[in-house]
Write a structure and sequence with these properties.
The chain is an alpha+beta fold and 145 residues long. Helix content is 36%, strand content 17%.
Length: 145
């Protein structure tokens, strides 16, 4: 229920707050390297980031979080894997529905979608929504305090 609510709430919040696109120059922001195959197999979850060229909110996520994400508890539990919106999905991945918006963050456990965040509403909302999705999926992640 919360995931479905977040899917509707997040885009509406972005529009209501008038969060504008970031400068195009940020699309070239440094992007954290993909985790090694070993790290991906050891982690209980994966976070699939569906993106596309020219996506201002993808660029904003890259500028604000890409470098620190792998160093966080969430990043260690769910290493990031990037997928282009129009590209085929990784083999063995079962999603509830095809991503439509970018960025879309799909939390996957054993190849099956267990959570989704559509859009990037800023750091505070992103961490809260990701933490909620991880805890709902059974991750050992402390509640926000």
């Amino acid at each position: 229920m919360r995931s479905a609510l977040a899917t509707v709430f997040v885009p509406a919040l972005i529009l209501a707050l008038g969060i504008g696109p970031v400068a195009l120059a940020q699309t070239t922001a440094s992007i954290a390297p993909a985790p090694s195959a070993e790290a991906q197999t050891d982690a209980p979850f994966r976070l699939i980031m569906v993106e596309q060229p020219g996506c201002a909110y993808c660029a904003r996520w890259n500028a604000e979080l890409a470098e620190i994400y792998p160093k966080t508890p969430e990043g260690k539990l769910a290493p990031l894997e990037r997928v282009q919106l129009r590209a085929p999905l990784p083999e063995g991945l079962s999603l509830r529905s095809a991503p439509v918006f970018t960025p879309t963050f799909v939390l996957v456990q054993n190849g099956i979608e267990v959570g989704r965040i559509e859009g990037y509403p800023g750091q505070d909302f992103f961490w809260g929504l990701l933490g909620m999705a991880l805890r709902e999926a059974g991750a050992d992640l402390p509640a926000p305090g």
